[in-house]
Design brief:
Largest sheet of chain A: 10 strands, parallel
CATH class of chain A: Mainly Beta
Number of helices of chain A: 2
Structural class of chain A: mainly beta
CATH superfamily of chain A: Hexapeptide repeat proteins
Largest interface: A-C, 45 and 42 residues
Radius of gyration of chain A: 20 Å
Helix content of chain A: under 10%
Oligomer: homotrimer
CATH architecture of chain A: 3 Solenoid
Chain lengths: 262, 262, 262
């Protein structure tokens, strides 16, 4: 035997794409063709762009206080997976894609094509460019600035407090095309240069120059990025944009291929 | 179109503050003015103090066996955020505040003003003093003892098994006012002394003396705490209680200010 | 006052063990005596073996595309705890036990008695033997192979990309009876030998020989496993199977005891 509710759900889902068990505020602006999964809660003053999907068990537009909540804007074509929590007061460009159980606090400004992996914890008050990709369980402290095309891998932490606990927060800046490998901590106020690579399980204690490799705890200079060769192709593994293109649009890939041939 | 359920919820929420989609055991003792969010489950033998809030999608008072569950006590003025799981058989003083998705196992005794960050994982059978503050994703092994005013930052792990897997667990003790920075592991049975500071991304392999700084993997002696100066003020950054007061009551702050002037 | 729904739940729960607030696809094959908790979603083409329990707020059999979903098979006597997400297209032997909020992607083949701790993140396309035990927050990259009786502790990461981001993934192999302690990262393509022990907070950059100990960042040779003595008994702490038997069947324990006496 099955609960009676199933038949009802099939009906609603097909017709409206908003599950009847969800709570959607009457003041939320829900775009065309948006899917909202079972049990999900959409609070006041949320705007969700056309063709987006919100999975089950999410809480979207959570307020921090009892005051009028600031707006949460989720761009079109986005996909927020189940059990995720987004606070009010942030803005995300189109094609935001998240894993499950992400936590996203207030005052975030993010560009388009932002990927936030399962269990990521964004503490808010940060800026993200376009095509930023965070793998699972990345922790971004407040006041961080992450530029276009940055990659961060599981359990990377961007810190912000030089003498915890204190009131003087200094955010980390990660420049475009930089890659931070898994289980790495970046100390407050540092800059990871454009196209730099930080190895796994590192503690970054100094600024990292553009197009260099650092690794270790504390992280030490390991050469320039073109010394790393891909085992399979025998070619330079970096800049990664010269050979890794999955998930980027044709216009960008064309540009990167031309750049690689110069 | 919106599901009909929304109007119903508004009504219940305003009148009773217990969402009609929640499951609340008839044997639970719910204080005055307590809010219980959508879909949350409150099991048998739970007591929740006055003016507390429980967010959506929580499971409060989960039993480990089919036996009569031991009591779970949540003090007054507490705030448990969404998707959190608390097992039966623990006790928390007033003003417990949690982030989202915390997991709290059985046999915990905690004082007042305990702060448990998003994604923290408390394995149970531990003691916490008053005003303990855990940032996100802190993992506390069984048999830990955490004294008053301790701070731990993201991905700190307190271990307990010297030769895993074994049956001889030795808990860590963290003494009052100590601070453990992000991504640090403390080996079993060690003591972090009063007011000590452990730097980020460290592995603590020996006891840490009171009011000293250690850092590294393995962690090494880095001086006494008063060698660390705050960049902005030029004053000693520690003891932190001499200058960091956010979230503490006036009576404590007054005491700390007087102490700092002696 | 309590919501009326509670009484209804008691009734359904006792009679059918499938909570009436859950969504269970008509095409799912649910075994005898299976419990399905409140609000849980069971998608199409899922098979759950007899006497299993699925906790609240789970999503079981999630599809990655709109195509016909491949089968998800959960063996008998399993226990999946609340807020967990399993994708379609994997198979688990009997007595699978999970903590809360595990994320399990597609294309996993796992043996029996698999234990997946709270907040573990299995990226899919991996193989697990029998009696594998993952503590909390273990992250398993794609293409990993984990043999029988392996233990991994919190925040262990098995990586797979030598030059991230790239398309040439090389999975890690962890051989039988090996133990990887907390907060350790294993670089791509490496093998952790049978019965080896990797210490806490290590970065493994080379293959680890059978029955040896390594530790550090980068991990260095620390001797053979029998040099580690248990503090309490004064006996060798490893192989752990000679003295640690909790959770294993009598037939295995008998075999291990005989082996230890030879």
């Amino acid at each position: 035997m099955r609960p009676q509710s199933l038949a009802k759900v099939d009906y609603y889902w097909n017709v409206m794409k908003i599950d009847p068990t969800s709570y959607v505020s009457k003041s939320a602006a829900i775009g065309k063709n948006v899917e909202i999964g079972p049990y999900t809660i959409v609070h006041d003053n949320v705007e969700i762009g056309d063709n987006s999907k919100i999975g089950a068990f999410c809480e979207i537009g959570l307020q921090t206080t009892n005051a009028q909540s600031p707006k949460l804007f989720i761009g079109a074509e986005s996909n927020i997976r189940s059990h995720s929590v987004f606070y009010a007061g942030s803005s995300f460009g189109h094609n935001l894609v998240t894993g499950h159980r992400v936590t996203v606090r207030e005052n975030i400004e993010a560009g388009s094509d932002f990927q936030i992996g399962t269990l990521c914890d964004l503490q808010g008050s940060s800026k993200f460019g376009n095509y930023v990709k965070l793998h699972s369980s990345v922790h971004i402290g407040q006041k961080s600035t992450i530029e276009d095309f940055v990659w961060m891998f599981p359990y990377v932490v961007l810190t912000n407090d030089p003498h915890p606990p204190s009131n003087h927060l200094l955010g980390v800046t990660v420049s475009r095309f930089a890659v931070i490998a898994t289980m790495t901590t970046v100390l407050p106020g540092l800059n990871i240069g454009e196209g730099a690579l930080v190895g796994a399980h590192s503690l970054v204690t100094k600024n990292v120059n553009a197009n260099t490799v650092v690794a270790g705890s504390p992280a030490k200079y390991g050469g320039t990025k073109d010394i790393l060769l891909d085992d399979k192709s025998g070619q330079a593994a970096y800049p990664w944009r010269f050979h890794f293109h999955r998930g980027y649009p044709t216009s960008l890939i064309d540009e990167w291929v031309i750049e690689s041939q110069q």
